[in-house]
Amino acid sequence: MPNTVFCKKFQKEMEGLERAPLPGAKGKEVLENVSKQAWMEWQALQTMIINEKHLNLMQPDSRKYLLEQMDKFFNNEPTDRLQGYVDPDDIQEL
Asked: What range does the domain containing 19 cover?
């Protein structure tokens, strides 16, 4: 039976992650408060942010920035916009 959590992103009970996706206290917080669906959506956005901003995750400032964006995402706060990205749902067919 899947683990369930009250997801802070979607504000409802949802299927949780099987294990902490990050080490330490931050990983425990995500495991206890973020659904599997929210984590998957964050991973997609995270990939776009890393690529768009040319982040080097070996640099502490880049990792700090990415964690700040993650916290904003899970708390339903605006994250940095990616230049040139158009959500496929926003495209109107001609």
From this structure: 4-80
